[in-house]
Write a structure and sequence with these properties.
The complex is a heterodimer of chains A (about 325) and B (about 325). By secondary structure, chain A is an alpha/beta fold. Chain A has a single domain, classed as P-loop containing nucleotide triphosphate hydrolases (Rossmann fold), CATH 3.40.50.300. Chain A has helices at about 50-60, 80-90, 110-120, 125-135, 140-145, 155-165, 185-200, 215-220, 235-240, 245-255, 295-300, and strands spanning about 5-20, 25-35, 40-45, 65-70, 75, 90-95, 175, 205-210, 220-225, 230-235, 305-310, 310-315. In chain A, the strands form 2 sheets. Chain A has an 8-stranded mixed sheet with strand order 6-7-8-3-9-10-12-11, sandwiched between helices. In chain A, helix 6 runs parallel beside helix 7. In chain B, helix 4 packs across helix 5 (about 125-140) and helix 5 crosses helix 7 (about 160-170). Chain B folds into 2 domains: about 55-210, P-loop containing nucleotide triphosphate hydrolases (Rossmann fold, 3-Layer(aba) Sandwich); about 240-325, no CATH class. In chain B, the strands form 2 sheets. In chain B, strands 6-7-8-3-9-10-12-11 form an 8-stranded mixed sheet, with helices on both faces. A 4-stranded antiparallel sheet of chain B has the order 2-1-4-5. Classes of the chains: A alpha/beta (about 325), B alpha/beta (about 325). Chains A and B meet through helix 7, helix 8, helix 9 and helix 10 of A and helix 7, helix 8, helix 9, helix 10 and helix 11 of B.
Chain lengths: ~325, ~325
């Protein structure tokens, strides 16, 4: 289906390990996926499953312990110094807490201009024009708010400023890590619509990391589901939401609350909590909570296998429509 | 119809600050029946938490003015001394807060924290309190309660901590449990577990629950009635189905439409409420939602609407230009 599209980002067997020896935790344990140019890939999972770590490893904020990340055909995993700085202008990340991602004692214009100043790619006059243009695009009036301090803004406005700053270098690839989870629904809708607009305008490719399944469905072309450092299922959003093949995806969707009194609450609730990544279960990592688990699941780790075009599942007993 | 457990009449909570007074709760009236679950929905700053804390009698005495009446099982809460409130906390009303880590003492074993309530409030001896605490831990679904009894809060996950907080709240079998965003910050699968737990405990202990949340999904299937708050006032209240399918207040609709739905196709354009919630310290004579409302007329900006009855019993809304029944494409 999407084979003819060009992958902008190729992630192969990415592993991020914290600590050493007996205390080593693989927060991301061998994750492979592609992000095609111009698409939005949603990354969902519960806290501690490694979604944010994956995002940070792609940006090389964290150094992967193994695996490769290719941006536009260039392996950036082993880049350092100037080459890495260059690669980073093409990818940007926006974080969950908009207020703490901005320096409260700096003025809005200065915050947005920072990447431009660091790279000195534009002249002073161009810089000022560009900053005002960026602020206008994210819905912050530079005439009124440009010289205010970051601390004077609400969460939604801070998130807009973060977005403007991220777009200053005209990146190709944007990682959004839980960017709307701290916002009220009405503000959340404003930011989601803004991201869609800017994506079209800048031709962006997005990795949208979030725990809210409804938000992810609304913005993503494809969705990947993570559990305990691994991808359990990846596929086109509508397919994955309508016919989840992995038991975990099914439970996750069953637990999502619909703002509708007639929505069924009878869906089976997943018991227990994710096990510690310090000591993941043998074989399939989900088996300790999976009601369908058999002996085979304890021995053999399932690998991502294509069950339909573009739809991959890592499960020995996936739900497949007959 | 069963008896009224809680009657709130024209409740106002005003904070005095250096920049002026802030009416965080501005004249709220409602009641709650025994064994009922009431949802209170609103965005941050809408006054839902202040309302809950006022009902609990938790507002500090300095720089806070509380007027109106809160009758809880026949006891007046407004103006009651802390000594009087102490006799009501835990046995009449208890509260579960959003962040379980800050509601628990980090340097006290969780079992002791439950014991404490039982020994102080019910005068149980050490042994009886210990046994009852274990019972409570088991009741809220904490596996191997015996060993968890000696755990510190930091040794537990967020979901487990919230279960401990619920166990503490329920220790003295309160008649009313106020749960303020009890599942915010928890993962969806854990959220479902906690909400199911609250539901079954409510049945088991036949208590009333006030469920405060910003997430309409949380109350959609759990509450029998819903109150929608905006800028410290009730803008609409009614049976859950009326609020979802026959709402009359444009804010309720905007809230429903701006939340993304799992059934939406990817890249669905979300309805947006322009602007931001009002600043309560600058009083506005009209409807607080008027500056953001697509239906606002001149009257809305000068005169505040009061709650009026809709066709369904118990359904009330505050709006000069309410939506009509035909405005509801999703009505069933």
């Amino acid at each position: 289906m999407s084979d003819e599209r060009r992958p902008l980002l190729k992630v192969r067997d990415l592993t991020v390990t914290f600590g050493k020896g007996a205390h080593a935790v693989s927060a991301v344990a061998g994750v492979s996926f592609d992000i095609y140019e111009g698409e939005t890939l949603g990354l969902v999972g519960e806290s501690g499953c490694g979604k944010s770590t994956t995002g940070k490893a792609l940006m090389k904020i964290l150094t992967p312990s193994s695996g490769t990340v290719e941006l536009d055909g260039v392996d950036i995993t082993h880049q350092r110094g100037r080459a890495l700085r260059h690669a980073r202008t093409r990818m940007q990340m926006i974080f969950q807490d908009p207020i703490s991602s901005l320096n409260p004692r700096r003025r809005v214009r200065g915050i947005v201009a920072e990447p431009l100043d660091a790279w000195k790619t534009v002249t002073g006059e161009q810089r000022d024009r560009l900053v005002d243009e960026l602020l206008n695009q994210v819905g912050i009036d530079p005439e009124v708010y440009g010289d205010r301090y970051a601390r004077q803004f609400s969460g939604g406005q801070c998130q807009r400023i973060s977005i403007a700053r991220a777009l200053a270098m005209r990146p190709q690839f944007l990682i959004c890590d839980e960017v709307v989870s701290a916002l009220d629904v009405s503000v959340q809708a404003q930011i989601l619509n803004l991201l869609e607009d800017l994506k079209a305008e800048y031709g962006l490719t997005l990795l949208f990391i979030a725990h809210d399944l409804a938000v992810v469905k609304n913005i993503s072309d494809r969705v990947a589901v993570m559990y305990l450092g691994r991808i359990g299922e990846i596929g086109p959003s509508e397919v994955l939401y309508e016919a989840p093949a992995h038991p975990y995806t099914k439970f996750l969707l069953g637990a999502a609350l619909e703002a509708d009194p007639e929505s069924a609450t009878t869906g089976a609730v997943l018991e227990g909590e994710p096990p510690s990544p310090l000591d993941p279960p043998s074989g399939c990592r989900f088996r300790s909570r999976c009601p369908y688990a058999t002996e085979r699941c304890a021995i053999e780790e399932p690998v991502l296998t294509e069950v339909a075009p573009g739809h991959q599942v890592a499960c020995h007993f996936p739900f497949i429509a007959q | 119809m069963s008896e009224r457990l809680l009657e709130v009449t024209d409740l106002r909570t005003t904070f005095r600050t250096v920049t002026g007074s802030v009416p965080a709760v501005g004249g709220v009236s409602f009641d709650l029946k025994a064994n009922e679950t009431l949802g209170i929905v609103g965005e941050s700053g809408s006054g839902k938490t202040v309302l809950a804390r006022t009902i609990m009698g938790l507002q500090p005495r300095t720089n806070v003015e509380v007027t109106g009446s809160v009758l809880l099982n026949g006891h007046q809460v407004v103006g009651a001394s802390e000594r009087t409130m102490r006799t009501m906390w835990a046995t009449e009303v208890a509260m579960v807060f959003q962040d379980p880590m800050t509601s628990l003492n980090p340097v006290m074993r969780i079992g002791r924290q439950i014991d404490e309530t039982l020994r102080v409030r019910l005068g149980m001896d050490r042994r009886a309190a210990h046994d009852r605490a274990l019972e409570l831990l088991t009741m809220v679904g904490i596996p191997s309660a015996q060993s968890r009894y000696r755990a510190y809060p930091t040794e537990l996950s967020g979901g487990m901590r919230q279960r401990v907080v619920i166990a503490t709240a329920l220790a003295c079998s309160p008649k009313l449990l106020i749960a303020d965003e009890p599942t915010t910050g928890l993962d969806v699968t854990i959220q479902a577990q906690i909400l199911n737990l609250l539901d079954s405990l409510k049945q088991q202990l036949s208590m009333s629950v006030i469920l405060i949340t910003h997430d309409l999904g949380v109350v959609a299937t759990r509450a029998s009635r819903i109150i929608v708050m905006y800028a410290g006032r009730i803008v609409e209240m009614g049976d859950t189905r009326d609020i979802f399918y026959h709402h009359r207040m444009p804010y309720t609709r905007a809230l429903l439409e701006s939340s993304p739905k799992v059934t939406n196709t990817p890249h669905t354009r979300l309805a947006v409420i322009p602007g931001r919630p009002p600043n309560l310290s600058t009083p506005h004579p009209g409807c607080p939602f008027a500056p953001r409302c697509a239906y606002a007329t001149e009257r809305c900006h000068v005169e505040a609407p009061t709650l009026v009855a809709a066709s369904a019993p118990g359904h009330r809304f505050a709006c000069w230009n309410p939506l009509t029944e035909t405005d509801h494409p999703e009505a069933r």
